[in-house]
Amino acid sequence: MPAASAIKVMVVDDQTSMRAMIRRTLQDLGFKDIRDKPTAPEALEAVKSDRVHLIISDYNMPEMDGLQFLEAVRKDGVIGKTVFIMLTGSSDREIVQKAAALGVNNYLVKPFAPAALKEKIERVFGALA
With a threshold of 0.90, does the pTM exceed it? Predict the structure, then answer.
């Protein structure tokens, strides 16, 4: 049972308000080390130089969407096993299937309740202490 405070998180979303909401939710769950970036290329560069345990990424972003970001993470020999949870405003089956094929660990449709995010994280890491 990992302590949430020991898990490093990168939140990636082009909407400032969504990043702030996710950050608050994670803090309420006990997470301490939370970083965030507005674009996938910035986040990719950041997690390559300072690794995290969990990436929570929006799907619909400019420059590089969530699927492209997931694929770039999975192809990287160093960060390829990082837990990746995809957020999207759409429950489009095709996006879900592509994300699954690329190795997403979990998937969450926005808007979501804090308990739903906690459940998705716990499905991968086990119960949070």
Answer: yes
pLDDT in tens, the chain (129 residues): 579 999 999 999 999 999 999 999 999 999 999 999 999 999 999 999 999 999 999 999 999 999 999 999 999 999 999 999 999 887 788 888 999 999 999 999 988 999 999 999 999 999 997
How far are the Cα atoms of 90, 96, 107, 117 from residue 93, in angstroms, in the given order? 9, 5, 11, 20
Exposed, middle or buried by CB within 10 Å (0-12, 13-18, 19+), for 122? middle
- Structural tokens at position 63: 């420059």
CB 19 within 8 A of CB 36: yes
Contact status, residue 106 vs residue 85, Cβ threshold 8 Å: yes
